[in-house]
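Attaching the record inline, Q. Sequence:
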Amino acid sequence: MSATQGAQRPKIPVSVLPMGRIAQLPESEEELTVSFNGTQAAELKARRDRKLARLLSDRERAWVVDEVVDTQAQVCTFAVLRRHLDRPGAPWYRQRYKYDGQTDVLYHWGERPATGDEVKAARSTPPFRPPS
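Structure, as predicted:
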């Protein structure tokens, strides 16, 4: 056995980076998890928004509501409040969707008429803007 085979590599602390720079480590594991999941959630929502933009017309106003993001499963469930443009005077509808980030597929889970309270709450927030 040669000297290099039996020797163990020295353990380098995680906080030391190449070139002698020291990384800013989070103070707790929870802080690290939140920032990592926040980045994952933002990326998942951006991919979802690109898919959703294909369904909505440029002149249509719609709101994404009741959004739940599961970064471990790479799934985002949400509802869209909108009116059908092809039906003048149509009521507001609440359409449920699931975006699967692993397969990059947007599933439609059905729709129902939206209540007045749902429309009022949604319209008090900014509408969906497709990514540019």
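The longest helix spans residues 29-55. The chain has one domain: 28-123.

More tomorrow.
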